[in-house]
Amino acid sequence: MDTNASDVKDTAFPLFYMEPVELIAQSKAEGRPVFRETEFVKVMLPGFKDISVHKVRPEDIERWPEYYRKFKEGNNTETIIGTPIKEWNGIRPSQAAACKTLNVLSVEALASLPDQALRKLGPDCYELQKRARDFLSSANSSSRITELEKKLEEALNTIETLKVSPQVEPIKAESKEITGPDGKTWSGKGRKPNWVKEMEGK
Q1: Which SS3 state, helix, strand or coil, does residue 42 take?
Q2: Model-level pTM?
C-alpha cells in the first residue's frame, strides 16, 4: 500500500540558513535598500523533490533542535544526522546521485523510505533498501558488542586493582591488665604467670 507524503512528514529534515530580507518601510524612509539577515529553513522530505521554504518558526526549532543547534554553531551547510549516503560503500555512484536528487541523504533515510518514494530510485530500489537496513542492523550489533567489551575491560581492571592493593593488617585485640586477689597485676603481655592460669582455671 502506497504512503502519501503527508503520512511520512515526520521523516522530513531541514536546512537552516541566513537570508537577507529587505525592510520595505525602512528602505523607503531612508531612500536606499535596507536589509536584515533573517533565519530561514528549507524543509526537505526524503523521496520527494518538493521543498518548503519559510522563515524559522519556534515549532521548527522544537522539531529539529539538533539541526538548529549545529546551524547556530556556524554550520550552515546540509547537516546530516546519521550515515551520509556519499560515505556508504554499499551503494553505486548512480544510485547515490539518484538518492541526492530525491533528498535521500543518509542511510537511515533510505532504510525508512516508503514504497511510493522508494520506487523512484529505480528497479534495484528494494535490494538497495535491504542493504541499507542490513548495514544499520550490523552497525547496531557491533555497537552493542563494543559496549559489552568496554564494560568487561572495566571489570577486569577493577579485579586487577584489588589484587595489587596492600592487605589490611588484622586488628589485634587490645591487651587487658589482670589483677590477682593478692594485688599482683599482669599487663596481658608476654608469658602468663601461674596465678593467672589458676584464675582462668577456676
Answers
A1: strand
A2: 0.46
